Amino acid sequence: MRLRTILGKIILWIFLLAVAFITLIPVVITILGSFKTNAELTAGATFLPKSWHFSNYAEAWAQANFSRYTLNSLIVSLATVVGTLLVSSMAAYVVDRMDFAGKKLYIGLQSFTMFVAVGAVVLRPQFDLMVKLHLHSSLWGVILILISAHASIFFILSSFMKGIPRELDEAALMDGSSPGRTFWRIILPLLGPGLGVGALFTFRGAWNEYLLPLVFTMTKPELQTLTVGLANLKYGISAASQTHYMMAGACLSILPILVAYLFANKSFMQMTAGSLKG
User: Fold this and answer.
1) Mean per-residue pLDDT for 250-263?
2) Cα separation of 70 and 60, whole Å?
């Protein structure tokens, strides 16, 4: 039995190391490639750069207009995070604490949006809707559509909501507190770990979104986000491939995600510990 346990641990560690290698090797290749010349990247003969070209980052920043596109991406991502957490937390509170007609149907529709990937099929109806709202050439159209895709965050917060004792609601009701006041003053602060995890996932999804910003900013290039700007680095003025600049820009675009993870790391660990304990 002991030999079988040791063998099982060895197999598990081999599997985990293989997954870590497969996950990290593209990141390492991208980081190293960001310091190479385009000719060196195209040849693909070396793993490490022959000479480290730190100027690639400065060129990528200038050519992709990083300062402007980064600001646009931050606006989209932060507004999406705030809107998604607000809508999802209120929906989770109502579904968990109250009974109303169509409750099971609502939960079923939320689940349906998670397991059915419609992708670009709904892009045209979404764009037509934003045209009628006069938001088709604005980042607010992108933000509203991203907020509407909140089903996964709704279920994350619903699971956290079930861990908050209902006795708190009853005590607040006896003190004369309304459901809305109870939610804002009592329930929402206790949802801190769930909100942190939801914010991390929402920020990552909004930051990496490419298709929606591309479509909604075609007539206004100054509103393009960082993902769209990075794609513009693919070809230079002479239509030559600029893969080294794209890799440098990709490395720069990863930094905000790392910062967001550092801020939400504590909440993410609390969620993991809670799931293991449960």
Assistant:
1) 80
2) 13
Q: In the predicted model, is pLDDT for residue 124 greater than 60?
A: yes
Question: What residues contact residue 194 under an 8 Å CB cut-off, 6+ apart?
Answer: 156, 157, 159, 160, 161, 267, 271
pLDDT band at 196; cut points 50, 70, 90: confident
Q: Residue 91: which of 204, 225, 183 has the closest Cα?
A: 183
Q: What average pLDDT does range 40-68 have in this prediction?
A: 80
Distance CA 233, CA 238 (A): 12
Distance in Å from the first CA to the final CA of the chain: 28
